């Protein structure tokens, strides 16, 4: 549409280094593709490792001034960024829909959620406090305070192009850190547009730098090998997170790692089944299933298993598949061909091991990389999707008999990001808070993400927390001073 082309024309396509938009030093660009059509949307600068080090130069040069900027001033810049993101909500939403695929309604929801990190951390910037006290021996006074860790490398994925950027940039800036953002190469446009809003909000040159690149490993390695960098915050797959943790060891960098998930979704006999189905629709089909918080394994207690599967299947059959800009669409395309192939492979594996297809089950013919919203029942032990993240619109249901068995199945994974459980028994709900081994629990709800809460996982799902009162501490070092008693 003309609105779409005008918007695409307005997105900066260079690297943001030291407050200036530049071409990549080698002059290279790469294409951004609309997964719903396969068409090229724009071309953006393809940074070399040397460009990324230039971005770190800018972040390092700006670090002291930004750290010394009054917390209220930092907070007010973030607050203006919140206002601007809210004001430009339709543009940000449309960009996410065309470069990532999610429906416009969900993209608007992401603007609300993503912008909230800017508002939340604008408020946290002025609440960084320490401690003052007498030591146990009575011989000295201890003063505990915090200071920004220094320049940070922020690496974000393609599935939430705005929120994953704001969730890192906002706490970093609130804490007084400068950053180099490396957005996912599949969805750079949202970050570039948002970076322009940050400049408009008053973020000084060098405080936020953005390098888009197809050489993510070269760029990350070059920046992380430079000892001016003090922190890396990453959201993405567990294998890449492990590579970055190893690289971070060389300069003993602070790290935050939001990695893969394999969320269990438990429905007990005493659950409100309609509420569980509504929660399942969100936990599984929101964002086309392409979320690290997506329900990956449904475990339903025997007594309600048939009812849950039938009601879920009926709802899934109502989901409209199409380009996210089309009216009424809720399931857009998967991000690329590889994602479609992976979903197809996991469904075929499940079926070959005895699962039944209640609805969907296959890719949709192109153009565009679509996969049918799918419900599988009768998943058997050993099925690959019990171990692997599906990252697509495929709900896989197994049954269990007792709470103990349900919990054991839920915890039988190397991951531990989020669990979902539906029960009307308060005592059972209380037990699940301790028995489910994940960083987050949705108890009778299918969505847990909120800027005011600490988002993050245990085990192979990562390290550190984003959001909440905890979020800012990922970007602060703790220092302690001892004074002798006078
Ligand atoms: P996903 O499955 O979401 O694409 P990835 O972990 O591959 O997950 O990608 C998440 C982010 O990590 C993207 O910005 C991507 O460019 C970046 N990335 C991928 N490989 C590396 C690497 N070796 N070093 C640094 N960043 C990487």
UniProtKB/TrEMBL annotation:
PROSITE patterns: ALDEHYDE_DEHYDR_GLU. The keyword Oxidoreductase applies. Residues 21-479 form the Aldehyde dehydrogenase domain. Keywords: Oxidoreductase. The keyword Oxidoreductase applies. The active site is at 258. Belongs to the aldehyde dehydrogenase family. This is NAD-dependent succinate-semialdehyde dehydrogenase. It comes from Frondihabitans peucedani.
